[in-house]
Amino acid sequence: MKEPLKNEHHGTLTSAISAIVVDDEPLAREELAFLLKAHSDVHVVAEARNGLEALQLIKEHEPDMIFVDVAMPGLDGLGLVRKLLEKKGKLKMPHVVFATAYDQYAVQAFELNAIDYLLKPIDKGRLAQSVQRVRRLMETPAPSAPSSTDALEDLLRTLKERAPQQSKLLLRASNRLFLIDAQELIYATIEGGLITLVTKEMEGETNYRTLEDLQANLDPNTFWRVHRSYLVNINHIKEVVPWFKSSYQLRMNDKKNTEIPVSRAQTKRLRELLKL
């Protein structure tokens, strides 16, 4: 039985929203769980490290909503949703809020289908909107409420039909505009609001405003956000350099052999990728 909570704005009793957080990064799970503590009507009943673990926890707890990372090793966020849809009718379908650091196309699809998303790093205001949206869906009478399942099916179809990743990038250098192949990009970095693209032959500014926007238009299997200020092409990593406190730096194969720090949150993925 749902625990009734008093609505601070209207003085009415509402049911608590049960939630499960699914993310392979412990720090990301901790951050989201911490932010959710500000919402007295949301109870995080469990946390999962991957899609398979999440499936079992969803069966056990039947949560009202789940927060799901899009990119996870093994069964990723989209794969988890597909599994849930396959069990439609046998398993209570929770409201799904995706968390993504890169996929701008998916973000647009979520918005069109009234299924929400959180763009990492998570903004408190956007998180509040997600909770409010789920609350409205839960309180709307079933006949007129949007179907989360139908919306998710539309979303998955949309993602399958998505446009191919951008193959050319605009690079501005020496007052000239160059078109480079995306695969030639060794790394991109942001400083002072400006993004610099680096290839073996040149470096210069891009017309993208954020690394998130740039990454959204590149192959997610090739380009990796190893640090909040760096996006690297994994095919151009020359050497992995051990650093202090079990951290690492990546030495790239550009002319300067640039060394790029790997954030603590991404160190686990680096170890899995290279079997360190």
Write the layout of secondary structure elements.
Layout: E1 4-6, E2 13-15, E3 17-22, H1 26-36, E4 42-48, H2 51-61, E5 65-69, H3 77-86, E6 95-100, H4 104-112, E7 117-119, H5 124-139, H6 148-160, E8 168-173, E9 176-181, E10 187-191, E11 194-198, E12 203-205, H7 211-216, E13 223-227, E14 230-233, E15 237-242, E16 248-252, E17 259-261, H8 264-274
Parallel strand pairs: 3-4, 3-5, 5-6, 6-7
Antiparallel strand pairs: 1-2, 8-9, 10-11, 10-14, 11-12, 13-14, 15-16, 16-17
Helix pairs in contact: 2-3, 3-6, 4-6
- CATH homologous group name of the largest domain: Response regulator
Percent of residues in helices: 25-40%
CATH architectural grouping of the largest domain: 3-Layer(aba) Sandwich
The major beta sheet can be summarized as: 5 strands, parallel
Give a verbal description of the structure.
The chain is an alpha/beta fold and 276 residues long. The protein has 2 domains: 4-160, Rossmann fold (3-Layer(aba) Sandwich), CATH 3.40.50.2300; 168-274, OB fold (Dihydrolipoamide Acetyltransferase, E2P). It is built from 8 helices and 17 strands. The chain has helices at 26-36, 51-61, 77-86, 104-112, 124-139, 148-160, 211-216, 264-274, and strands at 4-6, 13-15, 17-22, 42-48, 65-69, 95-100, 117-119, 168-173, 176-181, 187-191, 194-198, 203-205, 223-227, 230-233, 237-242, 248-252, 259-261. The strands form 5 sheets. Strands 4-3-5-6-7 form a 5-stranded parallel β-sheet, sandwiched between helices. A 5-stranded antiparallel β-sheet has the order 12-11-10-14-13, with no helix packed on it. Strands 15-16-17 form a 3-stranded antiparallel β-sheet, with no helix packed on it. The radius of gyration is 21 Å and the shape is elongated. Mean pLDDT is 81; it is low at 6-12.
